[in-house]
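Structure ticket #2291
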Amino acid sequence: ECFDSVQLLAPVVKWSENVKEVDKIPGSIRSAFRYSTMDQPGVAHLAISKEAMFGTYTGKAESLFTEKFSEEYPAFRYCCNSDMLKQLVRHISEAKKTVIIAGGGVVHSKASQELQTLAETLNIPVISTLSGQGVMPGDHHLSMGVVAEKEIHPYTQFALAEGDFLLFVGCGLN
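Resolution: structure written out below.
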């Protein structure tokens, strides 16, 4: 007896699909990689039916490829439009005590150097989340430590409490 693995696994994976035709396997594999490497990394589930598994592929060889952008994580990076960027610059320039909170997205995007350059250029202290540890060297004069649920260093707590503009970079807020 078969069970619906797509429906069963949908709540715990980022993407789930059942392929019933052999010619749809290449596109479905590309989709699985695309979904697993965009936003937060996660599991993609691809169920290939017995018919597709043992079928004869009639598609073109050209359709058997990987998408270049899905070869490394993150596949897609978020960008802001120029109006959002202007608004951000205005907020930073009006603030007296900006603090950057850097998360794992900075690490995944390999943007630690860019974040450090931004912090140094604008003289903004940086607090890391647990998943963002290492985005600023611990001995850097602008590094203010790590925000953790249970334990926060007093100067990290002070920076958060006193900051008049908190800039979250590479963090999910939930």
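Closing remark: Strands lie at 15-19, 44-48, 98-102, 126-129, 143-147, 165-169.
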